[in-house]
């Protein structure tokens, strides 16, 4: 099979580097195009990230010598790549505009950025949860008059650790009324240079700008329904989030207490919940997408797990690990969930989105 | 004024060292006696902690040359110290028995250990919250037939960061029905050697043995009432705790969401809450106890505070710092609270207890 | 090919776990036997490491259900494994005695422990440097009257980062007269629980017991010569070591200044040195041993490399990465070298030793 | 005594904040003037550092409400402050020019910046080592035609940990020929935001731009001699430095191996060296300058000290702590030295310089 040529926008930033790294031997896609700010444009990729390549020791061979293009020059990408991954780090409005320009030039955009997350005909995908949201793309194309181009996004990394467990419960017939979530988030989520080390040695920071709002809101779009050319948000669960930055490189941990929207007698037992999680499978598993975890939710029984350093890389860094499932004196249950924020929560999650779109024929 | 001679049991452990350090120039008390396990007994204090003195660079001069006694030999302490601070690190039953032996030998015990926290006539003191719980001591003495001896304890360090804010609200007429608390706790809380560095570099551990149970339960005794020779627990708030160990040396942070037990119209505004906290004063402030903070609850307005590294030492490490007060989409309010776990939460809290007991004449 | 059944002694400790993990899909060897202290004996491996499995999320499937044996019961291993990896963590004399018992029972011991490093007929192997030291095994067997059993060891992890670069220079005709080395060593080198986190957050410890002596001395045996049934130490280089513990999980870094034992005119240029390093290959590469790095010494040109987090995993964690090669105002040259202390420096280094011994027919 | 009004240039950066903090209750000096970039100008100091006050919990009361001035507007400072501390963080040439403008406006500059360190009539002071270098100020004033203004600087923080021990030995008659130094430097030395946390969690960086050159060169000016209107550099010792960034907040550690320039028989014993260090006193001690340590060099005997977390605050953070003094197999002796980089090595060192200049009448 001939691989599909793809581009990476924002290729020199931390998430961009992750894309480059993870796409190195991808069975479907091949990075043939990199673009970044005008500062990097014209340099080889190797030169552009000189002294700040952050993912392992070496840049993948195939990308080292690619000449970085100016991301704002959409025409340069035309004819070179079938679609682009967007890991742009710019002003939100600028990203929105630029991603739309790519789409209008027949270049679909699979984006990691938040700029288009709230556009109501842009799907915000977690392939295990809402693969059918790709149905909205037709409406999106129609609205813009785009031919082949479109935009699909992924949600914030902070909610990836608990969305799959929540969704699995909802899908199994246990709707969640409300939940209180406290996250302990890794520094890679802030990009590079990101959080100063002066703030992360012998310290935590109980605040991440914009994160709590995203976590509380994006949840509802992901659980929403495609109807009348829009994605209509779900009404529940109500989420209250406390987001903290902690001195961890990769892996977001979430402490969750939740209440079911069910009469007491219909609430699931802890055993039932574990069984729902362990057996949860979805479209990416059925389609055997290459980046899909075999088992999306892993349950651990050790008292002190999940831990970022031990569990983040489970199943290619794409599984969510859940542990400490127990009753909650205030709500119904509580547990700890963990996912790899730059794999599942960013670049590899974006790649999985692209794999889903590819499997559904959106890049044909 | 002649200082009162005091002893420190468990003097070589981390909390014991903190006591030695903090009592160095205390206006009331002077450490004249140190005791630890039989392994240390007979050595000078300096020799006993050789290579593992953990608090600043130097052992206080007055203690260096004291010969460490065997803590299990209660008779050695008789006549030497008016009371002892207990920072014993042994099996719980052994601590309970030993603390009672000291008390029965006319040596009051101001304890940091958890062994006697649930004895129903032992006060578990936070002097700003329940100073009147010292009233139970008479019943305790009577039950045991003790003359001068008695036991008073302090609660677990994990709840110190939010107990004062909660209590201030309750006292101001805003009872709390229930709360969900997630703590990010410092490694010094686990003593020394404590948590392995292999678990605390690029990692957090979402579990601390016994901590959640303590946090959920001790709260109710502290808010309880002395009645009929017992401390009767309060009925509320119901607490659900998620306790995490994070790579911070000192300073426990708590993310709190809480619900008032009030009709909507009677719930306090955020402004009112801040005002309650800022103006909160109690017995230790009235008595001007030397280790009491001038202002027990400090409110910060920066979006990213409190932080352990910046705020733990506020007001001698005895103030609780609260920040990020905001509405909670699930309950009524949420906030972040922080206190110094080895000062307010352990040794200096114990010293404040002793100062209260002293001021009330319990050591006469 | 049928795999050779092997055992791991000290299987529950940190290095033992590394062996289990790294041998999971080894082409030659299969772990069929695990042994540890009597405390673990009788439990399944999974039970024995419950709550303290430290290497990734899961224990390899094939080992989970093995019943851990008492390492001191040599007879239990007989007939079960062709040889054993020793990762024993006991008193040195006890290890020495026990390893000899295994050897005398026809079970060769490939050891990670320091107990037998200074036995003069025990080879201390780094396969790229002194593969011919296996010649001493015949003398060792003869002295003890052993038949199939023997002991081979690996050196301390602290010198692995600079030994290969030094050796490559010596072999290329540039003898080293003396060198001053300062190491920044990872906490995994201290085992588990190892270094307390209280000492490794916002701190470094400029001392590692016994490490400087090992580093200074072992170097000379490794560079020594097999003669008259002994390994005779090399006379140079003279090494002065400063060993520090730093808050890094894996990867020892060494800052090296060295002086050649050559007239000024014969000293190599920096270019020549780089070329010597880059082209260095040895017996493991020729034999294509499965754990051997393709290129044992990697040279980097970025000003700020090597760094543990970026470079430790280069070439399966078996390559040494060298950077910052530059002239030294005091000696001739200086550079920074880095190797993975629990892969190259411990378990995978031990496995490479076993692969060499296997390739040479020592397990037949 | 009425306090001398002083200003702080670069008052909002990390070193500037340290000055503000440390001058809070200074017996001689009072901060009445703060200046920073034009971005901060016009705001109160409190507003200007909102959300990034880094030194303890609170800004000193007296400074909170000062309106920050534009540092480039020298005229604004005239008449307001008797002298200024410069903690400017700008382009080096711009700093040089600006510091000279202040000096030419009759405002002496006590600088932390490196811009004027190599001006040959600017003294680079460590008051315990070269207090007589203030003699050069007359020549400096004369060259520029300045009246009251002048510039005095302090050296780089990296060498402060070993300069005092070296100087004490030289002064006692034990000249040092050459030394190899490896530093483990704290992140506060890089200012704020400084080193990204992504580089300092589970990692060290074996490179600090420009640091090795400074360490190797500044040493010689400090040990130099005022002659003919210049400071003539010393010829020895020759220094080779390896500078590393490690995950420590404050406190630079140096591992030093050194060779005396003496015949073997005249070299000092370890006992003699310790005695030289312990008894070392100098001009700041004689003058009882308020920020001077009582004992400039502290020697520790524990095997694992000095450590940043334990020893950096010794004697107000102004003492150098030395430990692990032992023989060196390559040179004569080796040891570990530690100093607080933002107290002794930056702001408090600058304040001590000002105290010396004040005591000598330079601000009259």
Automatic annotation (TrEMBL), chains A, B, C, D:
<dbReference type="InterPro" id="IPR005676">
    <property type="entry name" value="Asp_semi-ald_DH_pep-lack"/>
</dbReference>
<keyword id="KW-0486">Methionine biosynthesis</keyword>
<feature type="active site" description="Acyl-thioester intermediate">
    <location>
        <position position="157"/>
    </location>
</feature>
<dbReference type="InterPro" id="IPR036291">
    <property type="entry name" value="NAD(P)-bd_dom_sf"/>
</dbReference>
<feature type="domain" description="Semialdehyde dehydrogenase NAD-binding">
    <location>
        <begin position="5"/>
        <end position="137"/>
    </location>
</feature>
<dbReference type="InterPro" id="IPR051823">
    <property type="entry name" value="ASADH-related"/>
</dbReference>
<dbReference type="Pfam" id="PF02774">
    <property type="entry name" value="Semialdhyde_dhC"/>
</dbReference>
<dbReference type="GO" id="GO:0009086">
    <property type="term" value="P:methionine biosynthetic process"/>
</dbReference>
<keyword id="KW-0791">Threonine biosynthesis</keyword>
<comment type="similarity">
    <text>Belongs to the aspartate-semialdehyde dehydrogenase family.</text>
</comment>
<dbReference type="GO" id="GO:0009088">
    <property type="term" value="P:threonine biosynthetic process"/>
</dbReference>
<dbReference type="InterPro" id="IPR000319">
    <property type="entry name" value="Asp-semialdehyde_DH_CS"/>
</dbReference>
<comment type="pathway">
    <text>Amino-acid biosynthesis; L-methionine biosynthesis via de novo pathway; L-homoserine from L-aspartate: step 2/3.</text>
</comment>
<keyword id="KW-0521">NADP</keyword>
<dbReference type="GO" id="GO:0009089">
    <property type="term" value="P:lysine biosynthetic process via diaminopimelate"/>
</dbReference>
<dbReference type="GO" id="GO:0046983">
    <property type="term" value="F:protein dimerization activity"/>
</dbReference>
<dbReference type="GO" id="GO:0050661">
    <property type="term" value="F:NADP binding"/>
</dbReference>
<keyword id="KW-0220">Diaminopimelate biosynthesis</keyword>
<dbReference type="GO" id="GO:0019877">
    <property type="term" value="P:diaminopimelate biosynthetic process"/>
</dbReference>
<protein>
    <recommendedName>
        <fullName>aspartate-semialdehyde dehydrogenase</fullName>
        <ecNumber>1.2.1.11</ecNumber>
    </recommendedName>
</protein>
<feature type="active site" description="Proton acceptor">
    <location>
        <position position="252"/>
    </location>
</feature>
<keyword id="KW-0028">Amino-acid biosynthesis</keyword>
<dbReference type="InterPro" id="IPR000534">
    <property type="entry name" value="Semialdehyde_DH_NAD-bd"/>
</dbReference>
<keyword id="KW-0560">Oxidoreductase</keyword>
<dbReference type="GO" id="GO:0051287">
    <property type="term" value="F:NAD binding"/>
</dbReference>
<dbReference type="InterPro" id="IPR012280">
    <property type="entry name" value="Semialdhyde_DH_dimer_dom"/>
</dbReference>
<dbReference type="Pfam" id="PF01118">
    <property type="entry name" value="Semialdhyde_dh"/>
</dbReference>
<dbReference type="GO" id="GO:0004073">
    <property type="term" value="F:aspartate-semialdehyde dehydrogenase activity"/>
</dbReference>
<comment type="function">
    <text>Catalyzes the NADPH-dependent formation of L-aspartate-semialdehyde (L-ASA) by the reductive dephosphorylation of L-aspartyl-4-phosphate.</text>
</comment>
<comment type="pathway">
    <text>Amino-acid biosynthesis; L-threonine biosynthesis; L-threonine from L-aspartate: step 2/5.</text>
</comment>
<keyword id="KW-0457">Lysine biosynthesis</keyword>
């Amino acid at each position: 099979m001939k691989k599909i040529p793809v581009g990476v926008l924002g290729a020199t930033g931390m998430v961009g580097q992750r894309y480059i790294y993870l796409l190195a031997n991808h069975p479907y896609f091949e990075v043939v195009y990199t673009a970044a700010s005008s500062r990097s444009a014209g340099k080889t990729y190797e030169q552009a990230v000189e002294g700040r390549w952050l993912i392992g020791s070496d840049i993948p061979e195939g990308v080292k010598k690619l000449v970085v293009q100016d991301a704002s020059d959409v025409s340069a990408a035309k004819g070179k790549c079938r679609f682009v991954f967007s890991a742009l780090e710019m002003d939100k409005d600028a990203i929105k505009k630029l991603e739309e320009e790519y789409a209008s030039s027949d270049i679909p955009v699979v984006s990691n950025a938040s700029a288009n997350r709230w556009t109501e005909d842009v799907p915000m995908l977690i392939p295990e949860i809402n693969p059918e949201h790709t149905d909205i793309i037709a409406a999106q194309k129609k609205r813009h008059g785009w031919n082949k181009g479109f935009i699909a996004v992924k949600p914030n990394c902070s909610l990836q650790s608990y969305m799959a467990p929540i969704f699995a419960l909802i899908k199994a017939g246990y709707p969640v009324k409300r939940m209180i979530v406290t996250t302990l988030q890794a520094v890679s989520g802030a990009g590079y240079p990101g959080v100063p080390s002066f703030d992360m040695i012998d310290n935590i920071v109980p605040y991440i700008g914009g994160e709590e709002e995203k976590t509380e809101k994006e949840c509802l779009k992901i659980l929403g329904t495609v109807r009348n050319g829009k994605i209509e948000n779900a009404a529940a669960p109500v989420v209250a989030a406390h987001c903290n930055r902690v001195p961890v490189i990769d892996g977001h941990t979430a402490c969750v207490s939740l209440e079911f929207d069910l009469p007491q007698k219909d609430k699931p037992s802890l055993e039932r919940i574990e069984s729902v999680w362990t057996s949860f499978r979805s479209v990416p598993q059925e389609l055997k997408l290459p980046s899909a975890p075999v088992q999306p939710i892993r349950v651990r029984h050790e008292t002190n797990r999940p831990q970022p350093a031990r569990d983040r890389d489970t199943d290619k860094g794409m599984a969510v690990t859940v542990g400490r499932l127990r009753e909650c004196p205030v709500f119904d249950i509580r547990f700890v969930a963990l996912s790899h924020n730059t794999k599942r929560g960013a670049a590899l999650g974006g790649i999985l989105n692209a794999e889903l779109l590819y499997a559904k024929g959106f890049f044909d």
